[in-house]
Amino acid sequence: MNIKKIAFIAFAQVAACGAAIAASAEEQAGIDFGIEDQTDAYVLETVTPKYPVEMLQRGIQGSTLLMLRVDEQGEVSDVRVLSSSSPAFSKSAIKSVKNWYFQPGTKNGRAVAQTVTVPVDFLIDDLQMPALASR
């Protein structure tokens, strides 16, 4: 191996160790590096969407992908359909998701509003028999 290469590798390793030691000392001193502590919103409570009767009678399954805003209190607003296999599924999914409750996302320890994407699937196999009998 070339001496210049060895010297460069050794210098890079020393520099990396020095940076790690310096970072550790700065962190202990409470210096803000501008790195944000952020978490994403997640679902706490859902309301099962009603299966559209006409789709159920025809044996049609499907899905809807929604984009929605979760505010600082975890409440849903501004629901939009990104894609859907049927307008009937979209309508039912929107009505359901408006009643969902989220743990809001955070930024540096404070609750913040976020936009999230939520899939809502309509599968006949997932239905319970009493739900079918009540229609």
TrEMBL record:
Chain ranges passing through the membrane: none
Signal peptide: 1-22
Gene3D superfamilies (alphabetical): 3.30.1150.10
Coarse class of the protein's main subcellular location: membrane
Keyword Transport belongs to the record: yes
Domain TonB C-terminal: 36-131
Keywords: Cell inner membrane, Cell membrane, Membrane, Protein transport, Signal, Transmembrane, Transmembrane helix, Transport
GO molecular function: energy transducer activity
SUPFAM superfamilies: TolA/TonB C-terminal domain
Domain of life: Bacteria
Membrane topology listed for this record: Single-pass membrane protein
Keyword Transport: yes
Pfam families: TonB_C
Locations listed in the record: Cell inner membrane
Gene Ontology annotations of biological process type: protein transport; transmembrane transport
Cellular compartments per GO CC: plasma membrane protein complex
Family to which the UniProt record says this protein belongs: Belongs to the TonB family.
Protein name as annotated: Energy transducer TonB
